[in-house]
Amino acid sequence: MLSFSEFMGLDDPFEREQAETINDPYRSHSWVNICINILIRNVGRAPFQITLDGDTVCSGRIFSLFRDVNPFMNRYDLWKETAAWWFLEGEAFWFFGDDYSAGIPREIYVLNPRKMRAWIDGDKVIRWFYATERGEVPLLPDEMIHFREWNPWNPHRGVSPLIALTVEIQQDVRPNKGTSKLLKNNSVPEGILKTDQVLREEEEDRIEKRWESSYGRDKKSRSIAVLGKGTSFQALSVTPAALRFFELKRWNLYTLLARYGIPPRVANIQDQHSALSGSDTSNQHAAFWKYTIIPLLKNFEQILETQFFSRFGLRERGVFDTSAIPELQESADEKSKRDISEIEAGLKTINDVLRERGIEPKPWGNEWHQNPQGDKKSQKTPEKSLDSVNINNNHPITNKASRSLLNEQPIIGSQR
Hints:
Strand 6 (125-132) and strand 7 (135-139) form a beta hairpin. The strands form 4 sheets. A 3-stranded antiparallel β-sheet has the order 2-1-11. The chain has a 3-stranded antiparallel β-sheet with strand order 4-3-8. It is flat. Helix 4 (30-43) packs parallel to helix 9 (240-260) and helix 7 (166-184) crosses helix 9 (240-260). The longest helix is centred in the C-terminal third of the chain and has 31 residues, at 279-309. The chain has helices at residues 4-7, 17-23, 25-28, 30-43, 61-68, 75-89, 166-184, 201-215, 240-260, 279-309, 332-344, 350-356, 374-380, 400-407; strands spanning 48-52, 55-57, 91-95, 109-111, 116-120, 125-132, 135-139, 144-148, 191-195, 231-235, 317-320. Helix content is 42%, strand content 13%. The protein is α+β, with helices and mostly antiparallel strands.
């Protein structure tokens, strides 16, 4: 396995539990943790449905398996943990449980990929070993499902998406530790004590200890320093190189966001030149779903179709339902503008739009209405949407087609 931890040069995965608590980027790097939680929260928002011949299945053994999962996990946790391992280690394992022997499983458990070891014979995995406190437990490939990201170095294992960001993560974690030590001395900036007197070694030690005990680490800020005769304190200023560190951290942050496919505003990061609101924010949230979450969900669907539904000869299929995701819905204003454009272009009638909106059609609404002055007016005044018109009241409007909708009379000379 070529995980991020192994790429960092850690020990064997079965002997490195303590090392993981220190070097695991999910634990030690705040933005890795934030990014993965953003991703898995959104993956869980799309319900996984079982379908049969295009119809949603709401009962049966397959439905119960993906709804109940196991006594300790619900269906939301199943996909959340699967996606978390995918984004952290580039792979995830489903195990069918200790009581599984053959056929359709009754339970699903998510295993830790870091504890998995493959036994390969003839370029094929014939057995897996899972590390536990009691030793390695042998598992057969038929007892599990392996979600695996493409790995150019090992075709049998996934690869962490963070493998190419090793330097960037180290650049953040190491200076952060140094900065934490600096901030502990929160009463005064780091500096030096200067005196015009000649001091013996024991006097130097005594002054240093006195200063640390009164104004140094873990002391309240804004303390008043009382210095002896001929003694002064000189604060050390931050160098330009240290200031560039903050710009480097910003660059590393955007690199991490790009690797995970998270637009800045989805992570609540405000660009200094624009506000954290408006259409740009909506576009970034929609792009996050279209180009990051949905491709991942389609990948999961295909893996399950091959390793689960087709393996067991099932007619059912599993799909993620994204129809209710707000970020993917067309806004009312955009829909109204599109409807008006299609009406004027002859692609729809007014009754077509009314039926789509659940409104009773008009007797004359099947005839095509065209606004001959529409192109000219659109260059002078902004286009009004159908949503801005109350079709049950006499509200002034500018579009002839919409005006005919209010008066319930066709426009003479505008029929085809």
